[in-house]
Amino acid sequence: MGKKKKKKSHVPFRVNLLFFAVFVLFSVLILRLGVVQIVNGETYKKEVDRTEDVIVANPVPRGRMLDRNHQVIVDNIPKSAITYTNRNAKQKEMLQVAERLAILIDKETDKVTERDKKDHWILKNPDAVRDKITDKEWKLFKENKLDDKQIYEMQLERITDEDLKQLSKQDLEVRAIFREFTSGYAMTPQIVKNEGVSSKEYAAVSENLQYLPGVNTTTDWDRTYAFDSTLQTVLGKVTDTNEGLPQERLDYFLARDYSRNERVGKSYLEMQYEDVLHGQKSKEKLITKKGEILGSELVSQGQRGKDLVLTIDMDLQKAVEKILEEEIWAAKRTRGTYLMDRAFVVLMNPHTGEVLTMAGKMIDKDDDGKTVLQDYALGTIASSYNVGSSVKGATVLTGYKTGAISPGTTFLDAPMKIAGTPQVKKSWFNFQAIMNETRALRISSNVYMFKTAIEIADARYAYDQPLGFKNPNAFEDMRESFGQFGLGVRTGIDLPNEAIGYEGPLRLPGFLLDLAIGQYDTYTPMQMAQYISTIANGGYRIQPRLVKEIREPATEQEELGRIWKDIQPTVLNTIDVSDRELNTVKEGLRQVMQHPEGTAYRRFADAPYSPAGKTGTAEAFYDGPLKKKGDKLIDVMNLSLVAYAPHNNPEIAMSVIVPWAYQGRSGHTANYEIGRKVLDAYFELKKKPMTGPGQEQSAEEGSETEESD
Length: 709
Fold this sequence. Notes:
Blueprint: H1 11-39, H2 41-49, E1 52-58, E2 65-66, E3 72-85, H3 91-104, H4 114-124, H5 126-130, H6 135-142, H7 148-158, H8 161-164, H9 169-183, E4 189-193, H10 199-207, E5 215-225, H11 232-235, H12 250-254, H13 268-272, H14 274-277, E6 282-289, E7 292-300, E8 307-310, H15 314-332, E9 342-348, E10 355-365, E11 371-375, H16 379-382, H17 392-402, E12 411-413, E13 433-435, H18 437-443, H19 446-456, H20 474-485, H21 509-516, H22 525-536, E14 540-542, E15 547-551, E16 563-566, E17 571-574, H23 579-594, H24 601-604, E18 612-621, E19 635-645, E20 652-662, H25 670-686
Parallel strand pairs: 2-8
Antiparallel strand pairs: 1-6, 2-3, 3-4, 3-5, 6-7, 8-15, 9-10, 9-20, 10-11, 12-13, 14-17, 15-16, 18-19, 19-20
Helix pairs in contact: 3-9, 15-25, 17-19, 17-20, 17-23, 18-23, 19-21
């Protein structure tokens, strides 16, 4: 038998194959590591070490406002503040910082809502909140039949009042702080507390900043008013950090690099001049790595806003407001004045449009329910009234412009009856005399103005016959001409939301006659000041303005910076009348106050500054705060006065309006009293050196008189 053949084993071959495969894999791995470390190592190292630069902008104080004599009106008062900058921290980290900060400061909890409390309870009680969901509901959640939002809403609904009572006062303070942390925007400082920060709190936070990432101690500011409420309705307001940017102008501000929680001017001068008052924010570069702050460096120092030098003379403003207050209360002591609650004065340089005084006072209730006079300077541009005969200068000049009359034209002043008109239309006195325009202005003839309007309308008057207008554009012609003086149009003052007044909608012939004597359309006190200035300066309608110049912020608080912009007068239009025509009207206005027959003669005859002007009494309907829906119309009298002085070289123009002055056919003459005392105060103050904001100026008392218009 032969030998058996020995069977060959395949194990060594398989092992060798395995070892070879392992060798190849290790070789590939070593090769890959070599490529990573040797070829791309530096690149990957740079990526790991890569940092980011984030620019953070910090707001600066706003510019100041000063009067024409450089008395500070609006300034900034510094105050300690604690801020938080969200540097992409996680919610848990922010909560920890809030808890540490709550130990160091007191924080009001009045803004913490019920939803805030529930959210905080969830953060504090993760196990308990999980138990608010049943096993069945968790199963539905795992089966994707309920989502995260639905689970969360169910948890919120099931948190009870008893659960919320578990939150301590400290918990609520933490939540209030956490609420401020999360209400801001990434890399934008957010105010945590800026009211009532004690020196102890400020020091404690400053000493522990290393344990409070994102928190900082800084100086915030508030607007302060050196003259209290004087002119405050016109100065405007600034939003607070809770308001931030107004929603209606959000895109405008965001496009100009504003932060959403930044404070901006939200009304009147503060809003009108926001671009210059806001200033240039300081910029800080934060060096971050993976969301953590590694360091910072100042990019630009920043600069507070530019200063506004106003045209207003605050000493004169205060003197005028005092006169208004005294005369309003004096008038209220007379009969028929239950509805009277306000009065206005505007003083303007007729050659430059600079508004020296913009005063308004209105009776109202204060926070304690006490009846007081509040600032309503804003009413000089925001409210309009029938002004009566004060507009007759514009009526005569419109007659000249349209060719309806010429200098020396005469009309018989006698009562007029128009068919279809229930009342006789007449002057305040039955003159029964032929008169020219100069005397018509002097004695305030209504009939002369009626007949001028009839000529403008190319009509013919006959007693108790209808007026047929051949000129269908008579209303437009008169209103267009009045607009050239500033009546019934925007004056162009550098304030937003200026009213233009009310334009009577009906076009019956009788209403055109009412328009000619100021008893149809309504006008603002500012429009009246622009109108009389246009006559005073020789026929140039000048744009009124409240800002005289804009100055760079000074390095020292008490100093003035250099002029950045000097605002020059702007002529809006000129009146198309001859010098003879204009001077004829100006003579009539002079005689109103300086001729024994003038309606204001007894009150202004002895004025040493030689004034000219026009008085007005308008039959109107009450439209004030006491009017209720459905009430019957109440007849009232509006009083007005426009003037300038001296008549031969005007340096000041004035309008006075006292709406709803009294009920009945006669009453007080507060327009005369206010006008005389205001002009006296202006010329008296010219003689005195500039005074400080706390000092009083007395207005010269004039004798009381009453005159019909």
